Amino acid sequence: MVMNRHIIRIIPALLIALTMGQQDFEKVGTSGAHFLDISPDARVAGMANSVVGTKITDASAAFYNPAALVHMNRLNFFFSRVNWFAGINYHSFSWGMKTPIGNIAVHMRQLSTGDIGETTVLEQQGTGRSFVWNDLALGVSWARSLTDRFSFGANLSLIKESVNLYNYDASAWAVDIGTLYITGFRSLKFGMSVRNFGPELDFEQEGKDATFDDYHNGELLPEPESYRPYHMPLMFQVGISYDFFEKLPNHKLMVAIDAVHPNDSAERLHLGMEYSFIDILFLRGGAYSNHNSASFMGGIGLDLGKITPVANNFRFDMAVSNYGLLGFVKQFTIAMSL
What is the pLDDT, as a whole number, of residue 7? Predict the structure, then answer.
């Protein structure tokens, strides 16, 4: 109990310290591969991505805090679709299972822009050609309980970006790590994750350094310019969660708060809530602080596994996120355990 009291004091202080350490200069646009920042799970998106301190029981945990995979008790499948801006589609898939050496998962995230009309300095109304920007992340995850309350997990992913018309591609390996601690003080949980840690990405063309024609004052320069390497969107996230209705049999109200430190923008807080009725109907809401465009999120979910013999857990979730001038993002998720 003494340790629990210390944890209760330390966690709020840590969250406050992270959010007060604002950067004097936001390094917006200094990293790439931002499809890795898109939240795949509609359940999590509806709670404003306040997730690393929560107990996730399916294979979607690999995208947020791989340590939470230890709470996946059965073979699990997860699929999601995000209707991103400008008609861009983003799909995710993960599959996980228990093994004697720990819980494992394999996962995929894929973004495709569809056809984009090509324009150049000389043909600004279009060349008549089009290109497609593609992003892909393929990964494997492992998680294990080190004690009855503390778990550790890690992801290893291959990140790839490509532009088909010019045969440009960039790839690199990335590592995610996470921890989750069940404090033992009622329903309080504490989690941490570091995502997208790896080398810089750099475009190549047929195995050689990719170049492009550069202009100065409308005049073509004599030497082609090389694309510069760019960082992945490294993110450190720490969070807590607590169920305020833990003693009520048919109602739950989980509140989660995450402090987020990205490498290319200011620190921010994510605040989310999830109300559930008899573990079948779920209502969610959340908000970001100090974000350039995103503000409020919300969603709804059903766990059909409680009322159908198809699967032990069969959840369907939808979420809508408000990105201000950019508009709304809609997404849905299906997850099933066998």
Answer: 47
Number of domains composing the chain: 1
All residues at 6 or more sequence positions from 99 whose CB lies less than 8 Å from its CB, including other chains: none
Mean pLDDT to the nearest integer, 225-254: 91
CA pair distance 203, 191, nearest whole angstrom = 35
Mind giving me the DSSP string for 149-164? Answer: SEEEEEEEEEEEEEEG
C-alpha 10/C-alpha 1 separation (Å) is 14
Does the pTM exceed 0.90? no
pLDDT in tens, 172-183: 999 999 999 999
177 beta partners: 154, 194
Q: How far apart are CA 87 and CA 175, in angstroms?
A: 30
What CATH number does residue 239 fall under?
2.40.160.60
Closest alpha carbon to 22 in 242, 215, 269: 269
CB 84 within 8 A of CB 111: yes
Structural domain span for residue 192 = 2-337
Question: Residue 180 is encoded by which pair of tokens?
Answer: 């989750």
CA distance linking residue 261 with residue 10, whole number of Å: 18
Nearest to 58 by CA among 252, 318, 272, 314: 314
State the Cα–Cα distance between residues 299 and 295, nearest whole angstrom: 14
- Would you call 322 helix, strand, or coil by DSSP? strand
User: At 115, phi and psi to the nearest 5?
Assistant: -70, 130
